[in-house]
Amino acid sequence: MGATGTKKDAFEIVVDDGTIRVPIKNTLGDEIGSFKFRPTDTGLLERYREALGRVDDAVEPLSNASIKADGTADEEVEGAVEAVQEAQKRLGDLLDFIFDGNAAEAFFSGMRPFSPIGGRFYYEIALESLGNFITARYKDEGKKLNKRVLDYTKKYGKGTGKA
Prior knowledge:
5 helices, two-stranded antiparallel ribbon, 163 residues, 44% helix, 10% strand, mainly alpha
């Protein structure tokens, strides 16, 4: 029997690390991708903040490029295609850095990062949505942990003067 109670290979260890698969949906409710996520990963928030600090460097190749309304490079501007491709790769690397390697394809396979939406680039909306998601998950996990700690300390008479 494995750690999860199912029969497993004798040379395999199964550990519940809290990983879940998270669907990404558009505003119509259609799934546009999914990625793996560990809500208990204590380094996630730090990596997210670090990635946000590196966004300007990621999009720096665009400083000499021109982007068309559909989020693609203006091919008439020399080097624009390569600049957009490099910036897209860098943004993808940042998303993968946040989640240890599986988010860029989920977010950018169906929509280019520089596609305009409401006066903003799609990648900006995606990063903002990720930040909201991460924050909500951390709050949820924090509440669960606090409840468990309170339940555990009650049996020792915390706050009652008993030991």
